[in-house]
Specification:
By secondary structure, the chain is of the alpha/beta class. It has nine helices and ten strands. The strands form two sheets. The chain has a six-stranded mixed beta sheet, sandwiched between helices. Helix 6 links the parallel strand 7 and strand 8. The longest helix is centred in the last third of the chain and has 16 residues. The protein is globular and about 55 Å long. It starts with a strand and ends with a helix. It is a peripheral membrane protein.
């Protein structure tokens, strides 16, 4: 379980996360919605220890991210996919995927490469294993990024606006992969502006506004009149997103 308790994060005088409480259980798909600047991406960065906390606590399967020794164990439980791919440009797709399993998990190279090729095959990119990132489309690079995260065999997959830099066709490619992962039981925390997709794959919807958690509801309830739509701020956000 990912346990988030009273988390506070500030950048100078700006409070980006203000007392956020959240639980993510194994097998859940939880989408985080909210306007730009609401703290969604910052929350992901706090979970994997890329941002230090100013208050509260986060634990991943009992490992606190504010403890240096426990942070390494927490990170091994989580795979993160970033919105801007973050692939190493001097490494092929296969090398990008196998680097961490070989260096961190000490997986034998032959085994790591075999598993990486299986992952690439699962996202339709086996024939691009030896391609450099510059030779791949945005959608292909993001699929390699997903494979890289999955190569570490994480218990939780953290997805930070993974389609925001993609055009509609490439977005569809990536969302199709994520839908398959959700259907297979992969635990995901999904920061997104893809409202329809979040509604399709999520067990729960979390809504952040100005760093505060306004709603944490089962998906059907969130989109019902007695749920999220009953809150004016959420209704305003959903109405605006449906017109964009």
């Amino acid at each position: 379980m990912i346990a988030i308790e009273g988390v506070v994060k500030r950048f100078g005088a700006n409070t980006v996360l203000d007392g956020v409480d959240l639980r993510i259980a194994p097998g859940e798909v939880v989408s985080i919605l909210g306007a730009s600047g609401s703290g969604k991406s910052t929350l992901i960065r706090c979970i994997n220890g890329l941002e230090p906390l100013d208050g509260g606590a986060i634990a991943v399967d009992g490992n606190r991210v504010d403890d240096a020794k426990q942070l390494q164990r927490a990170r091994r439980c989580c795979g993160t996919v970033f919105q801007l791919f973050n692939l190493y440009p001097h490494m092929t797709a296969l090398q990008n995927i196998t680097l961490a399993p070989i260096e961190v998990l000490k997986t034998p190279r032959r085994q790591a490469e075999e598993e990486a090729r299986q992952l690439l095959a699962s996202v339709g990119l086996l024939d691009r294993a030896d391609a450099w990132p510059a030779q791949l489309s945005g959608g292909q690079r993001q699929r390699v990024g997903i494979c890289r995260a999955l190569a570490m065999k994480p218990r939780y997959l953290l997805l930070d606006e993974v389609t925001s830099a993609l055009d509609p066709e490439m977005t569809a490619e990536v969302l199709n992969i994520l839908a398959k992962l959700a259907a297979s039981g992969t635990t995901m925390l999904f920061v997104t502006h893809e409202i329809a997709f979040a509604r399709q794959i999520s067990n729960r919807i979390v809504f952040l506004d100005q760093g505060r958690l306004l709603a944490d509801l089962p998906t059907a309830q969130f989109f019902a009149a007695e749920g999220g739509f009953a809150q004016p701020r959420i209704a305003q956000f959903l109405s605006k997103m449906s017109k964009s």
